[in-house]
Design brief:
Number of domains: 2
CATH class of the largest domain: Alpha Beta
CATH superfamily of the largest domain: 2,3-Dihydroxybiphenyl 1,2-Dioxygenase, domain 1
Number of strands: 17
Number of helices: 5
Strand order of the largest sheet: 14-15-16-13-9-12-11-10-17
Structural class: alpha/beta
Helix content: 10-25%
Radius of gyration: 18 Å
CATH topology of the largest domain: 2,3-Dihydroxybiphenyl 1,2-Dioxygenase, domain 1
Order of helices and strands: EHEEEEHEEEEHEEEEHEEEEH
């Protein structure tokens, strides 16, 4: 383990600002997030939509297949961004143009081992300050807080995000049986005091896993669940409490099958604070009930 996994790099602090989903029916997906997550819908360009509500933003684009092409992390200011740029150049990282119209011209991207972009910049386009009038869900607390991917290149992804990009290692999950017992197959990574802003699960295929909205407490989860109930959108996993991160949660799916998590009470961690080591995914993923196991063939369907 290198020191960068437990020492703050120039990335600290950074927060997940927005993500992009591509869809074969971008208009349908944008409408779903508008109704379901209380986001105002506007256009950024041909078949590209901006979805915003206070503290949460996503971009939806048209493509031949559902995909998650990038996650965008906001740094505090231009000075921190330039320091972080120099940090990456020292490590020989190839810096690419930023794909997002929401960050300034000094933003940049890097390509990870799964061919997904991680974007770093500062917000220039103002975020939504108020909910859209008449949209009930727009008033519900829900800060876009973390994004998670599944990867068939888990070891390379763990090394890239920690040793190269400088994310700090929080909890890890280790296989508890078989010839690979003890091997890490899940990592939770942070770029500020929240337990994780990014995580990777080992899986047979690399794909999007979920993104999460952090609320203010248990009652918010009830209000969100009631809202989804009025829209006849079922909860497919939860309610439960993750072991890793100790947060309350439940999940729904969008029309493209992307998983949306509503979360509360996510653990906070200080700089350099070591995380927990979990043997097996069962209690790491759900202390209250059934786990969701990604690193099996069945999980990829």
């Amino acid at each position: 383990m290198t020191t960068h996994r437990l020492e703050a790099s120039p990335l600290w602090p950074a927060r997940l600002d927005h993500i992009r989903y591509d869809s074969p029916d971008a208009a349908r997906l944008a409408d779903f997030y508008g109704r379901t997550m209380g986001m105002a819908v506007s256009t950024l360009g041909p078949a590209e939509f901006l979805l915003e509500a206070p503290s949460r933003t996503i971009v939806v684009g048209q493509a031949g297949a559902a995909a998650h092409p990038y996650s965008a992390f906001a740094l505090a200011d231009g000075r921190q961004l330039e320091t972080y740029r120099a940090f990456l150049k020292e490590r020989g990282v190839t810096l690419l143009p930023s794909p997002t119209p929401l960050f300034g011209s000094d933003a940049f991207a890097v390509r990870d081992p799964d061919d997904r972009l991680a974007v770093f910049g500062t917000r220039t386009r103002p975020a939504a300050a108020a909910a859209t009038p008449g949209n009930v869900a727009g008033d519900l607390p829900g800060m876009l807080q973390h994004v998670v991917v599944a990867s068939s290149r888990f070891a390379a992804m763990l090394a890239f995000y920690t040793d190269t990009l400088g994310f700090m290692l929080s909890d890890t999950v280790h296989k508890d049986s078989g010839p690979e017992a003890g091997q890490v197959n899940v990592c939770f990574l942070r770029s500020d005091e929240m337990h994780h802003s990014f995580a990777v699960f080992q899986a047979p295929q690399s794909r999007a896993d979920h993104h999460a909205y952090e609320t203010t407490g248990w009652n918010d989860l009830k209000l969100w669940a009631d809202h989804f109930g009025t829209l006849e959108i079922p909860i497919w996993w939860g309610p439960g409490r993750h072991g890793a991160g100790n947060n309350l949660f439940f999940m729904i799916k969008d029309p493209d099958g992307n998983n949306i998590e509503i979360s509360a009470e996510l653990e906070t961690m200080a700089k350099g604070q070591p995380g927990k080591k979990w043997m097996g995914a069962r209690r790491a993923t759900n202390l209250w009930g059934e786990p969701w196991i990604r690193d099996t063939a069945a999980a990829s369907s």
